[in-house]
């Protein structure tokens, strides 16, 4: 079984977000980059497939050389090899086209991505990859079992869960539930050493258009300071919610 | 040229989030000087009600192929109608279903997809819209490079705009061609509750409540307000509450009109999922709790006293 795990290289969850160059660029200074948390759940689930079902795990990122430490970390966690498509990820369509091209070449049984990247929050790359390949797509996936040419998947739906059986190859976009937080692995020394010599292939991008352009960034307006209400006069809160905020 | 809105259903009924998408589609159509149409699949409700939100005509697709959600079949039907009416802009809501559909649809009709949309377009040519990004810590204006566009609206970000129109409904048949099979084995749904991402009011509680046995007062407050309940991550990790209630960076993102956070400290990862709420009320015994910085209204006090008092006050207010 061959599994491709898509890794998005994103600012750490505690990062303060700033913009630069007249708010036309995201300011990377002082930012620590990590494996997108949703991808880490998927990667860990893939490692289980490797350990228990002999799967071969390839991780892929579309990005410039600065994303290599993130790919090396995925290798240290246990992926067998890595591919970096050497290009600035200019929009979801472009990124999906690159991954789909690699997937076609590699003949993967399963492609695992994340529900969304925590930077651009697009929720679109894995679905586009699936459609470009013409294979099943499951979003917000919280359960995955692979058995021969089929997978049993559980996905979140509004107010509940849906379990279904799909045939492989397929693309899933995962999140917590695929594995739990306590299952996530911190690379050990041996893993880090091995990762240095595992293959990391750098590939030139295929020709692809882009369909969206980020023209301007903006920070949320800062909140006016909180209005405190005396706990012994809670009717005042009800009045404010009704008359001032107009939400009840 | 026209605008097409994909209207979702929930157990056959039209979803509230879809009225928001319909309103958006109608406003966009009027700026483009054209009409807004809708497509609904497997609906039991009368879709003519969409006229109230500015939809001229709804195509209602029925039949055995659409009884269960199947993203590729749904996408085919939507693409089919889009082609018929020459839709240049498609609008849908960024719900779980919306996210299963939108990326496939974009590839199918070769369109630009812009998700998490939080405002009407700044420009219509080229289409430029504001979207939420960086997990609620920023916004990005996207300019489309494509002739055909799909806009996925962040649920609750814009609300509905009603008028008085009456919409037409046309039933159509579509036989999907996809050979992708999805065999649904089991659906496990909490009955009768508003799905959290759709709720207008959310009452949420955290570790400050100390034990799962103390959630009675949270549910009573939620009931008094007609709200859904949510929780912080540690609370769902400890199985005090189901995972489906977990909001934040690693849980569900919500944008209700009113979010009431009780005994939640306001960690940055929690805020990532809730700071899009219109109004935030924080009830916490610690005046230094970081959540107060992100709140509109705050009550410094013991939840075990404040919450029952608030429930009482809400009930009195509702009785008036
Ligand atoms: C310098 C720079 C400029 C940019 N300019 C634009 C722009 O003009 N317009 C625009 O639309 N976007 C722009 N982006 C955003 C960038 O294109 C996003 O990475 C891309 O849109 C995918 O993000 P998403 O939020 O849509 O991913 P999602 O669809 O939310 O990601 C879901 C999953 O897809 C996979 N995935 C996502 N991205 C990658 C990747 N790069 N490599 C491997 N797997 C991945 C991961 O598994 C991830 O969990 C820019 C980014 C950078 C760094
Ligand atoms: C990668 C990552 C992702 C994460 N994702 C999420 C996420 O999606 N969602 C999320 O919620 N967290 C997330 N977290 C965890 C987050 O950092 C916090 O640890 C968590 O939100 C804290 O939950 P809490 O506020 O319920 O508990 P605490 O931080 O323990 O806060 C409890 C609060 O209750 C108050 N309190 C105590 N007693 C009372 C009383 N009697 N009356 C009133 N108030 C009282 C206290 O003053 C305190 O402020 C994530 C963390 C990481 C590292």
Automatic annotation (TrEMBL), chain A:
Top-level division of the source organism's lineage: Bacteria
A GO MF term: electron transfer activity
Name under which the protein is recorded: Electron transfer flavoprotein subunit beta
CDD domains documented for this protein: ETF_beta (cd01714)
Electron transfer flavoprotein alpha/beta-subunit N-terminal domain residues: 23-212
Keyword Manganese: no
Family statement: Belongs to the ETF beta-subunit/FixA family.
Coiled-coil intervals: none
Transferase as UniProt keyword: no
Species per Swiss-Prot/TrEMBL record: Schleiferia thermophila
This protein's UniProt keywords: Electron transport, Transport
Automatic annotation (TrEMBL), chain B:
Cofactor note: Binds 1 FAD per dimer.
Domain of life assignment: Bacteria
Chain residues that bind FAD: 207, 263-270, 284
Any one GO BP annotation for this protein: fatty acid beta-oxidation using acyl-CoA dehydrogenase
Keyword Transmembrane tagged: no
Gene3D superfamilies to which the protein is assigned, alphabetical: HUPs (3.40.50.620), TPP-binding domain (3.40.50.1220)
PANTHER family: ELECTRON TRANSFER FLAVOPROTEIN ALPHA (PTHR43153), ELECTRON TRANSFER FLAVOPROTEIN SUBUNIT ALPHA, MITOCHONDRIAL (PTHR43153:SF1)
Name assigned to this protein: Electron transfer flavoprotein alpha subunit apoprotein
């Amino acid at each position: 079984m061959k599994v491709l795990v898509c890794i998005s290289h994103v600012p750490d969850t505690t990062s303060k977000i700033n913009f630069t160059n007249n708010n036309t660029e995201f300011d990377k200074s002082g930012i620590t980059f990590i494996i997108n948390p949703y991808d880490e759940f998927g990667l860990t689930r893939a490692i289980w497939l490797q350990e228990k079902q002999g799967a071969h795990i390839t991780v892929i990122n579309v990005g410039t050389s600065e994303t290599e430490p993130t790919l090396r970390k995925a290798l240290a966690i246990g992926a067998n090899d890595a591919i970096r498509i050497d290009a600035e990820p200019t929009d979801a369509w472009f990124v999906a086209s690159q991954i789909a091209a690699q997937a076609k070449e590699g003949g993967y049984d399963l492609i695992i991505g994340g529900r969304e990247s925590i930077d651009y929050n697009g929720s679109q790359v894995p679905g586009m990859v699936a459609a470009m390949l013409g294979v099943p797509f499951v979003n917000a996936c919280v359960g995955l079992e692979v058995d021969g040419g089929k997978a049993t998947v559980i996905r979140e739906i509004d107010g509940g869960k849906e379990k279904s059986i799909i045939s492989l190859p397929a693309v899933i976009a995962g999140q917590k539930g695929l594995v739990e937080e306590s299952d996530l692995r911190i690379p050990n020394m041996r893993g880090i050493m091995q990762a240095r010599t595992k293959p990391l292939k750098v590939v030139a991008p295929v020709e692809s258009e882009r369909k969206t352009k980020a023209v301007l960034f903006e920070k949320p307006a800062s909140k006016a300071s909180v209005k405190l209400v005396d706990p012994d006069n809670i009717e005042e809160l009800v009045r404010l919610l009704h008359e001032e905020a107009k939400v009840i | 040229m026209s605008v097409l809105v994909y209207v979702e259903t929930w157990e056959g009924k039209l979803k509230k989030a879809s009225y928001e998408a319909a309103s958006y589609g109608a406003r966009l159509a009027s700026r483009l000087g054209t009409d807004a149409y809708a497509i609904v699949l497997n609906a039991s409700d009368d879709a003519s009600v969409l006229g109230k939100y500015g939809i001229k005509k709804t195509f209602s697709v029925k039949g055995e192929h659409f009884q269960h959600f199947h993203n590729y079949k749904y996408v085919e039907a939507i693409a089919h109608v889009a082609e018929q009416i020459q839709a240049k802009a498609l609008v849908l809501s960024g719900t779980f279903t919306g996210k299963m559909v939108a990326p496939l649809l974009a590839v199918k009709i070769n369109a630009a997809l812009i998700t998490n949309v939080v405002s009407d377009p700044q420009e219509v040519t080229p289409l430029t819209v504001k979207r939420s990004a960086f997990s609620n810590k920023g916004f990005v204006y996207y300019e489309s490079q494509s002739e055909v566009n799909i806009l996925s609206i962040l649920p609750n970000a814009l609300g509905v705009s009603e008028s008085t129109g009456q919409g037409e409904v046309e039933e159509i048949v579509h036989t999907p061609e996809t050979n992708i099979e999805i065999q649904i084995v089991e659906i496990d749904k909490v009955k009768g509750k508003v799905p959290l991402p759709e709720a207008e009011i959310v009452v949420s509680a955290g570790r400050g409540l100390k034990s799962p046995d103390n959630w009675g007062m949270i549910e009573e407050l939620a009931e008094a307000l007609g709200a859904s309940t949510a929780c912080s991550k540690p609370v769902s990790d400890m199985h005090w509450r189901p995972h489906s209630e977990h909001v934040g960076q690693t849980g569900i993102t919500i944008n209700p009109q009113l979010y009431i956070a009780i005994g939640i400290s306001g960690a940055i990862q929690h805020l990532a999922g809730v700071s899009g709420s219109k109004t935030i009320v924080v009830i916490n015994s610690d005046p230094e709790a970081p959540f107060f910085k992100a709140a509109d209204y705050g009550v410094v006090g013991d939840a075990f006293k404040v919450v029952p008092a608030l429930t009482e006050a809400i009930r009195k207010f509702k009785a008036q």
